[in-house]
Write a structure and sequence with these properties.
2 copies of one chain form a homodimer. The first copy, chain A, contains 11 helices and 12 strands. With 358 residues, chain A is α+β, with helices and mostly antiparallel strands. Chain A folds into 3 domains: 99 residues, Hypothetical Oxidoreductase Yiak, Chain: A, domain 1; 190 residues, 2-Layer Sandwich (Ribosomal Protein S8, Chain: A, domain 1), CATH 3.30.1370; 36 residues, Wheat Germ Agglutinin (Isolectin 2), domain 1. In chain A, the strands form 3 sheets. Chain A has a 7-stranded mixed beta sheet with strand order 2-3-4-11-5-6-7. In chain A, strand 6 and strand 7 form a beta hairpin. Chain A is globular. The first copy, chain A, starts with 5 loop residues before the first strand and ends in an 11-residue tail after the last helix. The relative contact order of chain A is 0.17. Chains A and B meet through strand 2, helix 4, strand 4, strand 6 and strand 7 of A and strand 2, helix 4, strand 4, strand 6 and strand 7 of B.
């Protein structure tokens, strides 16, 4: 995964660097630390479109007044098995982490809990939050409204929907957990941007133009739309996720969604929702996790189609990447590393250091 | 929708006919009535692969001892926001209806509730159950394990997964509700069977053979596998749904799933799960439903791609079909109508009557 154009950094160093930058921008030290850890974890697990690469954008937004660095994140309404967290336009990582905490507490008593957010912001990869309840022998199911609309309704051209992701974290016993994290579009928009940066064409099926024809040039992405998975089905899923993660909590959905790539100032009123399920309420958590192990092994040992080298479980590759990152460091592109060096200079904070003995 | 090869029957007559047949087979009158109503509703909304067409199979299964006609459907375990219903191998329609009732009661207090089933059976179209909470100004989110495995893990050939559907019922105010009901495969297996019956080929993308090549002859369906929506993403969704609807409740999943098309005797131990969300817990239900109206109208009035006549919302076509069925009757194929006539003769029950003034 590393080549001449990447450098290696440790997850801990990366986390500290991000925290230091955000603290410089006005976040309290504790909050900056939480965001740093979650963003570094995103890079460590290979969700590099949602990790430190976002730091310059977050800083730009903070400086423009588009994010509240001292938010009063609080419960706006609650019952035994639900709550809505008002994020007061704070960093999404903080708002959603709080939502998960509240959901875990409630699920421990009620068995199941749904906690949504409003006045939140972009929070990085969905899987970060779906994973959190697993430490408590709980399942996490996560929905979010994306921060830019690139998806029209099926057959339409008005971009009323985003890539609204679904994520699930389902613990196993001896095997790695099953962790799903998927946009409801064929490709997340970050992948389109990555193709543009790499000077590559997109495969057919990612986007169409306004004639409904395949669009494969990522530099023309603004002229077209993303395609949902499974055609009208993915459109239905994106809509469902948006209603559950956005509308239900009084967060933005449809025309209200702010494109945070083109607007640093307007509060996004982002909505997310986490459903937490306590395994102990359903029976013996250990037995459940053992059943997941058995299923995982049946899947891994399935006969394979010609040319297929191995069967992957959702989340298995991220799991391996994070183990690799812990052993050898996180690969970061040399270009990004240089940009972060400039950023450090501008902020007068300590530079991000490379792993020394590669 | 009707042609020379269909006859029209009223939803009420169809419901009574099904109830009468099931009562003859030993179901208590009240239970037979519930199943009749739900099966007829499936036909009325156009889910005809899950309606009266299943009656002969259900009867065959009851006679073989594969379904318990006098089940003790009961709560096996519960907390404030969850329960597991043990269906005692009763008709799935009864077990899941009970699960929805319990979930609605709990959601009214806790705000949100998850109720799962085990020892249940095939229950017809997912949307029937996702719709139910809407009458209480609640959202329904439904997951089920399919009753035959036709889907291998991505890249594999062992059919460890089913078409595991996801359904959602989200109420609007003046507009029809948003009702999603989708298999996590490109085509539900019932559609493959329908193509075979009609003597038509399947489009590429529904199934592949054991070489990974497109399989388009529905008569060769047993030689191949269904394809998940969005490739590995749909595989991940089918797996997630199976773990949530099956494994979590102690119901069948993976190798444990009984193919109820080829086995009338073995209890299927089917699992389903409904999540019910009470709108009132989140704020003003009326305001939420109005927001859904606004979004629905924005979507309906979206600019359209060339050649697209109108934009549909999930569930909108079913909604229209049910209105048509109420006005004119439900179209049923003449072949099926004749089969039901034979069935009535065999059971010595009153024949299903056609709508008289077409």
């Amino acid at each position: 995964m590393t080549n001449s154009k990447t450098v290696l950094v440790s997850e801990e160093a990366l986390s500290r660097f991000i925290a230091s930058a955000l603290q410089h921008e006005g976040l309290p030290a504790g909050d900056a630390k939480i965001v740093g850890e979650l963003m570094a974890q995103a890079d460590a697990q290979g969700s590099d479109g949602h990790g430190v690469i976002r730091l310059p954008q977050y800083i730009r937004r903070i400086r423009a007044g588009g994010i509240n660095v001292r938010p009063n994140i609080h419960i706006a309404t609650e019952r035994a098995a639900m709550a809505v967290i008002d994020g007061d336009n704070g960093m999404g990582h903080l708002v959603v982490s709080r939502a998960v905490e509240v959901a875990v507490e409630k699920a421990r008593v009620a068995g199941v809990a749904w906690v949504g957010t409003r006045a939140s912001n972009h929070a990085g990869p969905a899987s970060l939050y779906a994973r959190m309840p697993m430490a408590h022998d709980m399942i996490g199911l996560y929905f979010a409204v994306g921060n830019a609309n690139h998806l029209p309704p099926w057959g339409g051209m008005d971009m009323l929907l985003s890539t609204n992701p679904i994520a699930a974290g389902i613990p196993a016993d001896k095997e790695p957990p099953v962790v799903l994290d998927m946009a409801t579009t064929v490709a997340a928009y970050g992948k389109v941007k990555a193709k543009a940066k790499q000077g590559e064409q997109m495969p057919e099926g990612w986007m169409i133009d306004r004639q409904g024809k395949p669009l494969t040039d990522p530099l023309r992405a603004e002229e077209g739309f993303l395609l949902p998975i499974g055609g009208y089905k993915g459109y239905g899923l994106a809509l469902m996720v948006g209603l559950l993660a956005g509308t239900l909590q009084g967060a933005a959905m449809g025309k209200e969604v702010v494109d945070f790539n083109h607007d640093d100032v307007t509060p996004t009123n982002t909505g997310q929702a986490i459903l937490v399920i306590d395994l102990a309420a359903f029976g013996d958590a250990k037995m459940f996790k053992h059943s997941v192990d058995v299923l995982v092994r049946d899947i891994k040992s399935s006969a394979r189609l010609p040319g297929v080298e191995q069967i992957w479980l959702p989340g298995e590759q991220s799991h391996q990447r994070r183990a690799d990152a812990a052993a050898h460091g996180i690969p970061i592109s040399a270009v990004l590393f240089a940009e972060l060096g400039e950023l450090a200079k501008g902020l007068a904070i300590e530079k991000l250091s490379q792993v020394t003995n590669q």
